[in-house]
């Protein structure tokens, strides 16, 4: 049997608040202490997963978008840095030609 899972881990995974989770569990007659450090069993976790799957998928989609944007920004910054290096090299070459 799987070990109990801390509620705060489930809250992060499903992207829901503690109040929302406690309210849902109360509606299912599952009583737990309203603390993030409370532990739930696998059956309770499965119930929460079924109920809040759409919240989790929304969170996953947002994370995917954030990763793409982060990569785009990194590529743009790398290109700008390379462009600045090329400008510096050209300026150094011009300065060397003038000094000759």
Features:
two-stranded antiparallel ribbon; mainly alpha; 100 residues; 3 helices
What does this structure look like?
76% of the residues lie in helices and 4% in strands. The protein is mainly alpha-helical and 100 residues long. It has one domain. Strands 1-2 form a two-stranded antiparallel sheet. The model has no long low-confidence stretch (mean pLDDT 88).
- Morphology call: rod-shaped
Q: Any low-confidence stretches, pLDDT <50, length ≥5?
A: none
- Classification by helices and strands: mainly alpha
**For the report, how would you describe the main beta sheet?**
2 strands, antiparallel
Portion in helices:
over 70%
Q: How many strand elements?
A: 2
Element layout with pairings:
Blueprint: E1 5-6, H1 7-14, H2 18-27, E2 39-40, H3 42-99
Antiparallel strand pairs: 1-2
Summarize the structure.
By secondary structure, this protein is mainly alpha-helical. It has one domain (5-99). It contains 3 helices and 2 strands, in the order E-H-H-E-H.
């Amino acid at each position: 049997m799987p070990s109990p899972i801390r509620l705060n881990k489930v809250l992060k995974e499903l992207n829901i608040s503690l109040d929302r989770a406690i309210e849902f569990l109360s509606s299912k007659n599952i009583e737990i202490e309203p603390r993030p450090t409370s532990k739930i069993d696998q059956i309770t976790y499965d119930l929460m997963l079924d109920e809040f799957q759409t919240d989790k998928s929304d969170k996953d989609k947002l994370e995917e978008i954030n990763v793409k944007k982060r990569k785009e920004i990194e590529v743009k910054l790398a290109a700008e840095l390379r462009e600045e290096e090329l400008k510096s090299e050209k300026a150094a070459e011009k300065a060397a030609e003038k000094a000759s």
